[in-house]
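Project standup — Tuesday

K.O.: blocked on the structure for the chain from last sprint. Re-posting the sequence here as requested.
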Amino acid sequence: MLSGLATSLDTQGFVRHDLVRASVPPSTAESNITNYLALSGGTYAINVTIGTPPQHMMLLLDTGSSDIVILGSNICGSPQALCNPNGNYHVDAGSYNPSLSSTSSFVANNLTMSYADTTKYDGSYYDETFSIAGATVTNVTVGLIQNASAPANLPFIGIIGVGYSNGQSNVVNNEGAPFPMLLEQMKSQGLINTLAYSLYLNDKEADGGEIVFGGIDATKYTGELTQVPVLMNITRPNRFLVSWTSLTFSSRAAGYSLLPSPIPALIDSGNADISLPPDLANAIFSGLGVDPGDYTLPCSTGANDANLTFGFNDDPKALITVPLSALITPVLVNGTAEVDTNGNALCKLGVDTAASDWAVLGEYFMRSAYFVFDLENNVIAMAQANLNATSTSDIKAIGTSGVNATAITTTVEVSLLPTQTAILNTAAAASATAATVSGASLTPTFNLGPSKTGSTASATSSKSAAVGVKAPALDKSILVFGANGLLSLFGGSCLLLV
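H.V.: unblocked you, prediction finished:
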């Protein structure tokens, strides 16, 4: 069944919507918020209705893509269909039949896409009535999947892409001009004042987060919002790429600078992991004692009082700190905790290797931050997230009185990648990068320092359970799909469009 949502519509220029964690218990009886990321790379979903009368469906929220892509009823007609292959996944994401809607209007039949994991689909575009959080938006263009194939035993789920309109698949494939995106229609129909939205994923233990179209929720972040310009692609941006200029690992014992020069980074809620160029990923793997084959490490590592701090645009205010404990998740094998040869419980690190020289900063990063994506001024404002905040009493519309105009609405001149700031510890960074990862027992090259409880954690700890990690576990029977598995609509699709 579709999960219920607490939603609200405010007439003063914004639309607020709760995000839910999609529930998929594959072969275990874990929490109902387990690991959609292990199936799709994207865990955060929005419930919407499309058509007249309304047809209900769940869509994965994806800042890394620009299309709304929904499932045709013909491919969701039975438990053996692509929406629920073999009946293994307790997900009813819904489907759409245009013949049952009085407001459907055919646009074109050139919807087509293929991905490196062998996922393929094609279909048609329709203009439809789209309802979200109590707000009804007309003439929204949606891509209807009518034919599809995917890797064995993986389900399809639709997406709601909230990126730039010129990142739509028909534009990328040189098949026409962009269709009006959801934000553009919301603005033209008076629901929001500007092409912007804020996003709060909350921590990995929470049931979900929040998106506010056209508004900012001041209860969900700490400090001040800092603007970072979106990098231009020729004359216009088509993805949320920013200049990532520093990465620091710090514990109570030492600090290491890991990013020798700036690289572009995509802020992508549709990708679960932090996907990094090989050299940078390997520096982190060796520093933390991670097995690069399956990205696992002792869960006890999460007890260390250590952080990764991400810096952007050479701005000392544009810093987001991610605790090490927020980056690891226990691993299960058929419902049982996996252990290493020493009997230590194993966790998966939310970092993997990208097949490119730029980075994708997915959910494991985004959960620690609050974002405002401003598509009119081509900036992303960010601040440290106020995790587990429950109040929604301080939402203000962007572009109206009460919002700090200099933080959001000022036009920013976008420049090329700036020069990186001073390196914290060049020698340590070089040592970490050069370290070799091999063998079954891996020793961290970083000085992780004492644990939060005062004891020293190491790769050979005798602890038998995850320490300092309370997130839902990953079942390794599906972990193999990871970021490249179910790109079927498509958390992580950006990885394949490089």
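K.O.: great, moving the ticket to review. The chain has eight helices and 30 strands. The CA atoms of residues 121 and 148 lie 4 Å apart.
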